[in-house]
Amino acid sequence: MFKPVNVAILGATGAVGTELLELLESRNFPLNNLKLLASSRSAGTHLKFKGESIKVEAVDEKAFDDVDLVLASAGGSTSKAWAQTIVDSGAVMVDNSSAFRMNPDVPLIVPEINPEAAANHQGIIANPNCTTILMAVAIYPLHQVQPIERIVVSTYQSASGAGARAMEEVKIQSQAILKGEDPKAEILPYPLAFNLFPHNSPLTETGYCEEEMKMVNETRKIFNTPHLKITATCVRVPVLRAHSEAINLEFKAPFSVAQAREIIAQSPGVQLLEDWQKNYFPMPIDASGKDDVLVGRIRQDISDPNGLELWICGDQIRKGAALNAVQIAELLMEKSLLNIAKSSLKV
């Protein structure tokens, strides 16, 4: 048993924030006090936790006094705005935004892969991007057996990746289309219902969007392989929850399909799901609400004797965001890495 700690959820009313709340309850996280924080717009609302109603407070300079752990899921600008206050208060922030992921002084952690990196934190730990987490958990067990030379990945990302309001927008658009009306897009740039489009994050000078470059740069950092060859194409699809990914892996030598299946079946955080007779493989509907990343359709790349093809589905809100953050918090508790002296990290 661990000594209960004081926890604050920053961005408590969002899709990831409410999932964090559910996970803290279902996993019986050792809480002494729980504080729910959000913008002034959401302050005053109430959320349920263990049968009790907790009032959401507006975040301010005093919000992190006597807080040991902050689970932040309010977006990059909010994380940047409050990070120094959190660090100076002596709390540790597990941040779900992209604000600090590539900061060399901030560990980027997937507990199944690089838990040892937590020992180097200076008050902030970054939670990777959802698509990165899902892919990394699925392929790292194979990488441990034979290092991956190159990754080609295409993602099929649900509306949940853009938040609860985007999920609701897809429902409204679907109803409009079925009534013969024109769908309206306000949260996402284009109608997503009965449609798909390349990921709408800003394009970089390379022609890759930011979401695609997150997969490239974050995977390299988590695997500690700065020169790993990776290319990604990210697509938004009309699915409410759970992302899917088609992954092509290239190794130096052949990697047998049978061995890959055996490794995946025995690895933490993943579940092998294949029924070749029924042509049944992971689907978003299977992955929604589940902790594990579902992996299937593992096959030999017919164009390359050293290549493997995989198909995965994972819950973006859960393992792709909230669960990974809670697992990092549990890791900090397990390794006694939560209570640190005030950090000198300047953010």
UniProtKB/TrEMBL annotation:
Gene3D superfamilies: Dihydrodipicolinate Reductase, domain 2 (3.30.360.10), NAD(P)-binding Rossmann-like Domain (3.40.50.720). Substrate binds at residues 157, 210, 236. It catalyses: L-aspartate 4-semialdehyde + phosphate + NADP(+) = 4-phospho-L-aspartate + NADPH + H(+). CDD domains: ASADH_C_bac_euk_like (cd18131), VcASADH2_like_N (cd02316). InterPro entries: Asp_semialdehyde_DH, Asp_semialdehyde_DH_beta, NAD(P)-bd_dom_sf, Semialdehyde_DH_NAD-bd, Semialdhyde_DH_dimer_dom. NADP(+) binds at residues 13-16, 41-42, 160-161, 183, 316. This is Aspartate-semialdehyde dehydrogenase. It comes from Crocosphaera subtropica (strain ATCC 51142 / BH68) (Cyanothece sp. (strain ATCC 51142)). The gene is asd.
